[in-house]
Amino acid sequence: MLFTDNPAIAIEDLADYETAVLDTAHIEGINLTVKIRLATNEVGLQLQSQFTPLANNGSGISPLLTLSNIVVTPPLRLWLLFHTLELVYRDAYFSQLNDRYQAKWNEYKDLSTSAEALLFQIGVGTVADPIPQAVHPALSLVSGTLAPAKYFVEVSWKNVTGQEGSPSETTALDVPAGSTLQVQALSPPSNAVSWNVYAGVTPDALFLQNTGPLTPGAGWTAPSSGLTTTGQQPGTGQPPTFLSTQPRILLRG
Question: Who has the most CB within 10 Å: 77, 123, 134, 166?
């Protein structure tokens, strides 16, 4: 997924690394969703501080790398996790001046610094033609004979080179007898040339339904024969085009 897609980490991810964080947040009145957002903003500013200003590369002006070009690789995800926990325990410490909270604050501050260094040592994952995460698709009913059920749907956009962005969050619709499911992807990015639709009767078993590329503006209607139940499932977004280990990052045209 891209750095500018939905938050790369969730409250459940924080609890995987620090089992006491939910209790701490409850006791101290700390909003973990807000802390994730603040940590993401702060990490984003640190990344932006490494971007080289626009420069002439001999064939014109080189495009400036932005946060939308950054892929959330494992070391970047670790940095986001540890920095969020650092903020949580910093607030908890200043709320109670509790030495136990201070120890946790220092621990996660050190882990955050190490994860940041690891990211730049391994390289910041970037893509040249970023495809943002798709928004919730529009689901509707039309006349048909699709088996009555609740259907779950995700969509994703693809760029001209066939790279697929992160899928949308799951949307669901109950389809009654005498109807079928129609899906429309909304708000296409300017560089999107096609989109995919994934659907199924359970949210954890979605499969690619279109046999060919769907153009922006075109809809997809489930066939009366039913959904495809095998094959490609939703991905996690674009992989990095390259890793940059330079202290300053420039996306060359």
Answer: 134
**pTM of the complete model:** 0.85
Name beta bridge partners: 183: 139, 220
Which of 192, 206, 193 is closest to 154 using CA atoms? Answer: 206
Report the distance separating Cα 210 and Cα 234, nearest Å.
13
Intervals of CATH 2.60.40 along the chain: 138-221
Q: Which CATH class is domain 138-221?
A: mainly beta
Which pLDDT value is given to residue 71? 96
Which amino acid makes up residue 106?
Answer: N
